[in-house]
Amino acid sequence: MGHPCVAVLLVAASAVVSGARSYTAVGQWSANAPQHALADLTGAAPAGSDSVALDGKAARGSRHGQTPAAQLPAAMTGDGRTVTQLRVPDKTNEITCFAALLAPFDLTGVTVTADALHTQCAHARFLVDEKKAHYLLVVKANQPELHRRLRSLPWKDVTARRYDREIGHGRRETRVTRALTVTDLGLDFPHAAQAVRILRHRTDRTTGTVSRDDVRAVGDGQGFGAGSCTRLSAVSLKARTRAVAPSAGHTKPQSTGAASSKGT
Asked: Counting C-beta atoms within 10 Å of the first and last residue's C-beta, which end of the chain has fewer, N or C?
């Protein structure tokens, strides 16, 4: 997880004030500093942001012998600013850290996106009831009944679609987003009001390989927007992917409606 230069300098200055006199000492101070202190030094307040995305990564080089790699769930705003991160305690997982990661921040009106690991009833209640936030969460097999219900919705009948196209990082990507109101379906998930399907085609500009992601998500229906869906797409890289070898007959996905490259 990257941090702005100012945040790195703040951490280094705090370490020096505390007695660190070398790069190694600064690194040791940073490694041993309390999580809340590092969050105050490196984080950006999410208040006023359209969306905040949660994602977790294993810290590179942190595995030692039988000690597993450190898991670092983090939160980022839609414009790429790091809000906070913490290390998952041993013998637990990211699910137990969800509320602790977000509890210190004002999330009123902010849409929180996360992958399927965090599609938990308790998380939805925490966001809407306690933090007055909104949510858009990926749904996969860890919520089997909800996943089945979302897959069975009449997605082919949805004529209103948003198209987003991007080129960068050596690839060309097209995302097609559809949404359905589900308040009358009795979905057994707190505050569920909207279902979303994101179909993403990605073409490697070097090899020509095409991948296809088909992602379903559920939201409370209040904070849905292009920014939150973009962040959702970014944190759902573990979605079911199908790789297609390039061929002479392959063409890029075509729009079926009159939509601009950045949506309607």
From this structure: C
